[in-house]
Amino acid sequence: MAKESMKAREVKRAHLVERYAEKRAELKKIIAQANAQTGEGVAEAYEAARKLQGMPKNANPIRLHNRCKITGRPKGYMRQFGLSRIQFREMASAGLIPGVRKASW
After folding, report:
1. H-helix or E-strand containing 4?
2. What is the model's pLDDT at position 9?
3. CA angle at 32 for the pair 29 and 34, rounded to the nearest 5°
4. CB neighbours of 101 closer than 8 A, spacing ≥ 6?
5. What are the distances in angstroms from CA 78 to CA 20, 41, 89, 101?
6. Paired strand residues for 83
7. What is the pTM (predicted TM-score) of this model?
């Protein structure tokens, strides 16, 4: 089981990403447009890049890490269910996940 502080840190990052998502998208759009054009908008792109650098590091969605909703385990995460492989197996065996049953052939 992951430490509660690790789970809380991940939740905090998710909120920060959500809060800055729109602003990051606008700045990245300005930078991309300046790169597409030659010579025009370079000063605006430079200013946008500076603002982007000034944002909190944890506002970047790359820094998010999927964790099991129950245990907080970072590895063996199954995106479709939001659980680690261990919790998925236990819950599926107990019949707690609708539509999932053990394969047999």
Report:
1. helix 4-36
2. 93
3. 110
4. 92, 95
5. 27, 43, 11, 16
6. 78
7. 0.77
Interacting residues of 33 by C-beta distance below 8 A, sequence separation 6+: 41, 45
Within 13 Å and on the Cβ side, how many CA atoms surround 15?
Answer: 6
pLDDT reported for residue 38: 64
Q: What is the pLDDT of residue 74?
A: 93
User: Residue 34 and residue 31: Cα distance in Å, rounded?
Assistant: 5
- Give per-10-residue mean pLDDT for the chain (105 aa): 88 96 95 73 89 95 93 94 95 93 85
**Residue 18, token pair as written in the block:** 């959500």
Instruction: Supply the pLDDT for residue 20.
Output: 97
Residue 47 has, within 13 A of its CA and on its CB side, a CA count of 6
Nearest Cα to 79, choosing from 87, 63, 67?
A: 67
Could you give the 3-state DSSP secondary structure of residue 78? strand
